[in-house]
Design goal:
This protein has two helices and no strands. It has about 170 residues and is an all-alpha fold. The radius of gyration is 62 Å and the shape is rod-shaped.
Length: about 170
């Protein structure tokens, strides 16, 4: 059978106690030190990861701000270009309108000058015809002074009639 001796149990307990004190002095301290260093390293890696995550969030925010600024700047450039295009369009239209007005005015002046020339030519021809007719009527009673008077009366009469029909 199994023999249980008190002394055996006591010496085993003393051996275990000595082994525990020896392990605690030489082994547990080093193991705890390694475990503490590993814990610090792991905590440092977590802190570094948190810091990198915060930096990434900051960079993302900066990027989004710059992107928003670029979008706003692009919109401003587009709006400015539209305004410049509108101004140029209006200027071109105004210039074209002004040129058209000048052309119309010049055309009216040309027509008026041409009308005057035709009217003067017609008056001159009518005066010549009237003088010829008057000479034939008067046939014998003609003198240079009388012819001149008849001619001037006829021109005055034609001028009076011509100015009434001009609408001036």
């Amino acid at each position: 059978m199994i023999d249980i001796s008190f002394w055996n149990i006591l010496w085993t307990a003393v051996n275990l106690l000595i082994f525990y004190l020896f392990a605690k002095k030489f082994l547990f301290g080093r193991i705890l030190k390694v475990m503490e260093e590993r814990k610090k390293r792991i905590n440092g890696q977590f802190e570094e990861a948190d810091k990198k995550e915060q930096d990434a969030v900051k960079l993302k925010k900066q990027y989004e701000d710059k992107l928003e600024g670029a979008n706003q700047e692009g919109n401003e450039i587009i709006n400015k270009a539209k305004k410049n295009a509108d101004l140029q369009y209006n200027k071109i239209i105004a210039d074209a309108s002004e040129k058209a007005d000048r052309l119309i005015e010049n055309a009216h002046k040309s027509v008026e000058n041409e009308r005057r020339k035709v009217l003067q030519s017609a008056q001159s021809e009518i005066a010549d015809i009237a003088m010829t007719a008057a000479k034939k009527v008067i046939a014998g009673n003609t003198s240079a002074e009388n012819d001149s008077r008849i001619y001037n009366d006829f021109i005055d009469e034609v001028d009076d009639d011509g100015s009434d029909s001009n609408g001036d």
